Amino acid sequence: MRNIIGIRKEEKNEFEKRVAITPSLAKKIIAELGGKVLVEKSNLRIFNEEQYKQAGAKIVDNLTEADVIFGVKEIPLSSILSKKTYVFFSHTVKGQKHNMPMLKKMIEEQCTIIDYEKISDKSGRRLIFFGKYAGYAGMFDALHAVGIRYKKEGIETPFVNIKLSKDYESLEEAKKSLREAAYEISNKGINSKLSPFFFAFLGYGNVSKGAQEIFDILPNKNIPPDMISQFEISSTLDVYNLYKIVFKEEDLYRRKNDGRFNLNEYYEKPHLYESKFFEVFYKLPVVINCVYWNSNYPRLITKDILKENMKRLKTKIIADISCDIEGAIEITCRCSDLNEPYYTYDIEQDSYENGIQPKGINILAVDNLPCEFPIDSSEEFSRQLEPFMKEILNCDFSRQFEELNLMPEIKNAIIVYKGKLTDNYKYLENYLK
After folding, report:
1. What backbone torsions phi and psi does residue 324 show, to the nearest 5 degrees?
2. What is the CATH number of the domain that holds 40?
3. pLDDT grade, residue 234 (50/70/90)?
4. Are 286 and 259 members of one domain?
């Protein structure tokens, strides 16, 4: 069986120009796999219609003829077509409240959902992701915030000329501008008032790796979390380096009854654990949050902890790349967008104000950061998706779920099949009530 592949237009916001299937992958699907590719008209998509036409795809007003529809972000209720197979990031597997209406609608319309987020190997490692590009963009946007925040405090930094990721033509151009900042640090150093200038990275997955890859363009020294205090009082600190600190689970959490940590137990029984990050976070000017979190896990930073540490707090900027609303970082109250990527939390007043203010904690909470590098991120994502296209193209989705001839990496990522939650995702019924 040869399914007709559809590439849907993205409708989340004006900045979402990414695609899951680039013209080059569309060409391979048509020429090498014998598939048919339909491309829904869009004025936003980073690749134009002519590029898809040259690849052999057909440009259409709608995707009613398509069997399997590929997208990137969530789908508006009004755009959901009945009895279609959708492959996209549904952002539903944690029971995200704002996406339950979409999930419910897809169930009602007897759709099938294959979620990129759940396409993983036997070890649970994700195989298709934009994560690194979230880290890339988030790191540049965090440094942009650093430059603005400290300038408002009367302190010049080498980051004052770093732009938002979306304002660069490409990732390489953005890296070039950061190399200029790196040269300045290496030759002139940073303001001694900022030393030691700590940058904390919470987590070590693809998002964190991407953020660290960008940060490592700058001169820095990597220190373990338990040495923060030692470096704080050291008389040998140099102003020609920043300080990178990567926090893993054992650095962030401890068992409530004895202060110890066991990774397997933490994942299986997170209610037995509490955050210990509060012991050091107030010493960290910049925090890059890349941890996976759901409501079963303890928060890392709460409003109460912030209030208790208000007088000694050095934290200026939190780049919450994970962007779980009121999640690991409780003060992440909403997702922001690239028109206004930052907002500021006033601890004393327990209030928020748009933009980067000189008092309080500046928060970056954009939930689709990879769209700031739409060409680079789409091409990388398409390369990851390509090995699975033959499998999806040839699958007979009219069969019963048990009879589907799909590799487990794909089959285990099916959240809804023909309007019914699959066994692995039955728990979502609790969120649909």
Report:
1. -90, 115
2. 3.40.50.720
3. low
4. yes
Proportion of the chain in helix, strand, coil states, percent, rounded to 5: 40, 20, 45
Q: How many structural domains is the chain composed of? A: 2
Judgement on whether residues 191 and 106 belong to the same structural domain of the protein: no
Domain containing residue 349: 131-372
Last residue of a domain, one of 372, 397, 416: 372
Q: 168 phi and psi, to 5 degrees?
A: -100, 150
What would the DSSP string read from start to end of 120-184?
B-TT--BSS--HHHHHHHHHHHHHHHHHHHHHHTT---TTTTPPPGGGSSSHHHHHHHHHHHHHH
Size of the chain, expressed as the number of residues it contains? 433
d(CA 339, CA 400): 45
Structure tokens at 24: 């080059």
Residues 110 and 10 occupy one common structural domain: yes
* Residue whose entry in the numeric block shows the structure tokens 């972000």: 73
The SS3 call for residue 298 is coil
Q: Which of 372, 392, 421 corresponds to the end of one domain?
A: 372
Whole-model pTM: value is 0.88
Residues 141 and 95 in one domain: no
Q: Cα separation of 2 and 322, whole Å?
A: 37
Tens of pLDDT, residue by residue over 84-116, are 999 999 999 989 888 999 999 999 999 999 999
CB 298 within 8 A of CB 275: yes
